């Protein structure tokens, strides 16, 4: 995820303080990995340096004075371009899963054991995501669906690869 572009999008919605940007970012996009305050302010500093945001007057708050950030026309143009451009289709053809299986087979190791362990890890994560989809708010359910569909595709690949292990081993050892 592009933190600078996400912050620009949040600023397009409304001018905000860094603290508020972090709170909204973490609520919608942080999911288990909150954005550090230092990264928020460093990113806002770079965006201001590059003319994509303007820093308003400092406002008194409970602690140090707070600065309100406002997106500029340059920032809005960059955000719009990013928002409308399709993301490169995933997955790439070189995944860690693929690499581990091929290396295990090349080295004469037990790829079946690895695939079984990976299948079990995927199934555990799928149970977690299914529970989140069932009990969480709509935004969480949407994210859970995305993750579940990717995990289902991985499981199909694991099953197909398991069925072909002998042939794959022969191909990568020759």
TrEMBL record:
Transmembrane segments: none annotated. Gene3D superfamilies: Winged helix-like DNA-binding domain superfamily/Winged helix DNA-binding domain. It comes from the Bacteria. Residues 7-80 form the Transcription regulator PadR N-terminal domain. This is PadR family transcriptional regulator.
